[in-house]
TrEMBL record:
<feature type="transmembrane region" description="Helical">
    <location>
        <begin position="117"/>
        <end position="134"/>
    </location>
</feature>
<keyword id="KW-0472">Membrane</keyword>
<feature type="transmembrane region" description="Helical">
    <location>
        <begin position="141"/>
        <end position="161"/>
    </location>
</feature>
<dbReference type="InterPro" id="IPR004638">
    <property type="entry name" value="EmrB-like"/>
</dbReference>
<feature type="transmembrane region" description="Helical">
    <location>
        <begin position="53"/>
        <end position="74"/>
    </location>
</feature>
<comment type="similarity">
    <text>Belongs to the major facilitator superfamily. EmrB family.</text>
</comment>
<dbReference type="InterPro" id="IPR011701">
    <property type="entry name" value="MFS"/>
</dbReference>
<keyword id="KW-0813">Transport</keyword>
<feature type="transmembrane region" description="Helical">
    <location>
        <begin position="358"/>
        <end position="380"/>
    </location>
</feature>
<feature type="transmembrane region" description="Helical">
    <location>
        <begin position="457"/>
        <end position="475"/>
    </location>
</feature>
<feature type="transmembrane region" description="Helical">
    <location>
        <begin position="81"/>
        <end position="105"/>
    </location>
</feature>
<feature type="transmembrane region" description="Helical">
    <location>
        <begin position="304"/>
        <end position="321"/>
    </location>
</feature>
<dbReference type="InterPro" id="IPR036259">
    <property type="entry name" value="MFS_trans_sf"/>
</dbReference>
<protein>
    <submittedName>
        <fullName>MFS transporter</fullName>
    </submittedName>
</protein>
<feature type="transmembrane region" description="Helical">
    <location>
        <begin position="200"/>
        <end position="219"/>
    </location>
</feature>
<feature type="transmembrane region" description="Helical">
    <location>
        <begin position="167"/>
        <end position="188"/>
    </location>
</feature>
<keyword id="KW-1133">Transmembrane helix</keyword>
């Protein structure tokens, strides 16, 4: 099989199932580890700034490797790439589970990330070439259902494991599953790739690594080091200059590592902008809610994980339904309705108080995730639908890279907003106190200032989502440039152009 699957025959469900299981456990591993960071800090005797590198390092490796996946998918077979990716992930998981010092654990996480970075673009490319446009929404919906179970069960499962075992059990739990999936892939995946005469440009790899890696590191470090730190703004400047050079170089190569011609297709460009804006708002929200629940309301980590569980389950089960609706009605109506819901619920989260109840938070988060289920997958699928087949690897690589970058930028920006507003509120509240404040008064001022900062951060997130909502009004149903749909009064006369809803 040369990855140009025939839409007239049955899609390769066996290959897709194995790839989905591999992608699922890599997603699950991420959500499991977030809850374990305090335990790792205590056990390995590292501070918050150091332990955050388990997340930042993972993102850096993803940001460096994901742009190369377009080349890898074109060059190698699905079987070879899967076995390499799953093998690296398994090795990293085994090492992490036996780590006794932090540098070994960090190195193991980066090995894990090198495998995970290949997995998602590979799976999405197989999905795109396996299903025709008319059935692609349903297929991507099922794909979303399976992958959304990871964030659904991850925090709760992690909380349970940490209550009964040490943090290393999180990796020991994943290890046998990863090994079994690798063995299944070795036995069942039989596809072959015809020899392709393309070569990876070393200068492009270097520029991409410095560019995307610099941006991710700079924005990820801004929350802890501050925007005035030379390690933040110099890294971002170097990253931007490297990316500009990288883009210019790609336009001059016959076989670019990452083909920026995908942005000649208006629906793909629009989808990229919308998903980046939504990511910037939502990634930060996923951090703010647990901080509020545990710090302001005093909820335990286990209970905070359970609070987020209904929303994740709603998002997961809505995914295949949204896929069917996308096939029938297109992406615009779904995205507009979904973003209206996300806007309303995010605005409600900007009015949190000390009296906000646990079940109110659970309800608002569930409704927010219900709205989100109608946004991300339909918009992304609609954008990819306009690309010709030869650009699928580049489109999926571009989307995954931008998701990493926008998530890092959004999180850094929103957390910075929260921190600066929190400092301002604390200064104002302290000035209102007559005389020397007591320890109890200081604690109340600190919590009230943090609450104000969190509310302001959610308010800024609301404006991001309103911008995405305005852009979503311009979405049109996309058809691939290479396809010739049946003539209809509603179709544009321009080949490959988008069809209005």
């Amino acid at each position: 099989m040369n990855q140009e699957f025939n839409h007239e025959v049955r899609p390769p469900y066996g290959i897709i199932a194995i790839l989905m299981i591999g992608a699922f456990i890599s997603f699950l591993n991420n959500t499991l580890l977030n809850v374990a960071l305090p335990s790792i800090m205590a056990n390995l005797q590292v501070d918050t700034a150091t332990v955050q590198w388990l997340t930042t390092g993972y993102m850096l490796v993803n940001g460096i490797l994901i742009p190369t996946t377009a080349f890898l998918i074109q060059k190698f077979s699905v079987r070879r790439l899967f076995l390499i990716a799953m093998g690296l992930f398994s090795i990293g998981t085994i090492i992490a589970g036996t780590a006794t010092i932090f540098p070994v654990l960090l190195g193991a996480r980066m090995v894990q990330a090198s495998g995970s970075a290949i997995m998602m673009p590979l799976l999405m490319n197989v999905m795109l070439v396996s299903f025709p446009v008319a059935k692609r929404g349903t297929a991507m919906g099922v794909f979303g259902l399976i992958l959304m179970f990871a964030p659904a069960i991850g925090p709760t499962l992690s909380g349970w494991i940490l209550e009964h075992y040490e943090w290393r059990m999180l990796f020991h739990f994943i290890t046998p599953i990863a090994i079994v999936v690798w063995i299944l892939g070795f036995i069942l995946l039989k596809d072959k790739k015809e020899k392709v005469d393309i070569h990876l440009d070393a200068i492009s790899v270097l520029l991409s690594s410095i560019g995307f890696g610099g941006l991710l590191y700079g924005f990820s470090s801004a929350g802890s080091n501050g925007w005035n730190s030379p390690s933040v703004y110099m890294t971002i400047i170097i990253g931007v200059l490297s990316l500009i050079t990288f883009i210019v170089r790609q336009s001059k190569l016959n076989d670019p590592m990452l083909n920026f011609n995908v942005y000649r297709y208006p629906m793909f460009s629009l989808a990229s902008v919308i998903t980046m804006v939504v990511n910037m708002a939502l990634f930060s929200g996923f951090m703010l809610l647990p901080i509020y629940a545990q710090t302001i309301l005093g909820i335990s980590p286990m209970k905070a994980g359970l609070m987020l569980l209904p929303g994740a389950i709603v998002n997961a089960f809505m995914s295949p339904i949204t896929g069917r609706l996308f096939d029938k009605y297109g992406g615009r109506i779904l995205a507009v309705i979904g973003l209206i819901i996300v806007t309303g619920t995010t605005f409600q989260l900007s009015h949190l108080s000390f009296e906000t109840t646990y079940y109110y938070l659970m309800f608002i988060h569930a409704v927010r995730m219900f709205g989100l289920s109608m946004v991300m997958m339909p918009i992304t699928t609609n954008g990819l639908n306009q690309l010709p087949k030869q650009l699928y690897p580049h489109g999926t690589a571009m989307n995954n890279t931008l998701n990493q970058v926008s998530g890092a930028i959004g999180t850094a920006f929103i957390i910075t907003i929260m921190s600066t507003r929190e400092a301002m509120y604390e200064k104002q509240l302290t000035a209102q106190v007559i005389g020397q404040p007591t320890a109890e008064a200081k604690q109340h001022i600190t919590l009230e200032a943090m609450l104000g900062g969190i509310n302001d951060a959610f308010l800024i997130s609301t404006f991001f989502i309103i911008l995405a909502l305005a852009l979503a009004l311009f979405i049109k149903r996309a058809t691939p440039m290479g396809d010739k749909p049946k003539k209809s009064k509603n179709l544009s006369k321009v080949p490959g152009n988008s069809r209005a809803l």
